[in-house]
Design goal:
Layout: E1 12-18, E2 33-37, E3 43-48, E4 54-60, E5 64-70, E6 74-82, E7 88-90, E8 99-100, H1 101-108, E9 119-127, E10 144-149, E11 155-157, E12 159-160, E13 180-186, E14 189-198, E15 204-213, E16 217-226
Parallel strand pairs: 1-7, 6-16, 9-16
Antiparallel strand pairs: 1-4, 2-3, 2-5, 5-6, 6-8, 9-13, 10-11, 10-14, 12-13, 14-15
């Protein structure tokens, strides 16, 4: 979930930031259309980024929000955050971004046997608060199960995973060493993206994130962070 840590009496707040050209890019995405929905999924405000990718957009105060990014040559992406209560708050750099079509197609190609019409949720599950000294990144989680659920906890689409070589594995039931997942064919609407992961041989942890997605959109989670208990 994008950290939109946002403290007045107005019913709205202002979110500012810079949309990146691609995941991990430090370059701004120019002239991208941004559409913000409130926690009920109702359209709330719209704006466009400037030539450097910077933007300002109105959001409901203290609510879950869904922010869509749409730009030429990029797949449409959607992000989830919390607007908080400050009158103005700046999003962390690179927390929202477009995804160039060619780059997205390259990343998603190993999952292509699962492809289906609708929305798509993708990402890598990693451990929050730990950095691997060799990679400089949070460790990947190999034993994570991904679900996209309706309000009564029923799945609305099936996850797709890769084997240790990064090839689609139709028999896999968890992320594996790549930590990666894709869920195709998600219907339009608001759903729960749930991650279930092993804590010990006998216990599991659960992390849940709201998503609002429409057909043709991609909800990227790089990373999708889970927490482990302190010893």
């Amino acid at each position: 979930m994008v950290a939109l840590i946002l403290a007045s009496c107005s019913a709205t707040v202002e979110l500012t930031g810079t949309a990146a050209q691609a995941p991990g890019s430090d370059k701004g995405l120019a002239d991208a259309a941004l559409h913000l929905r409130d926690g009920a999924g109702v359209p709330f405000s719209d704006t466009r980024t400037n030539a450097k990718g910077a933007f300002s957009i109105e959001a409901p105060r203290g609510d879950v929000v869904f922010l869509d990014v749409d730009a030429d040559g990029h797949v449409a992406t959607t992000f989830t955050g919390v607007s908080g209560v400050d009158d103005t708050s700046r999003l962390a750099d690179e927390s929202i971004y477009g995804w160039p079509v060619a780059d997205y197609e390259s990343w998603i190609s190993p999952f292509s046997p699962c492809a289906a019409d609708g929305g798509t949720a993708v990402g890598e599950v990693r451990v929050f608060g730990i950095v691997d000294p060799l990679t400089g990144e949070a460790p990947l989680v190999a034993a994570a199960e991904i679900s996209v659920l309706d309000p009564i906890g029923e799945p609305v689409a099936s996850p797709c995973y890769l084997d240790d070589a990064g090839v689609h594995d139709p028999g896999a039931d968890r992320t594996g060493v790549t930590g990666s997942f894709a869920v195709f064919g998600i219907p339009d609407g608001q759903w729960e993206l749930r991650v279930t992961y092993d804590l010990t041989e006998l216990t599991q942890g659960i992390a849940s994130f709201p998503v609002y997605i429409e057909s043709g959109q991609v909800a990227p989670r790089f990373p999708l962070l889970i927490t482990l208990p302190y010893l």
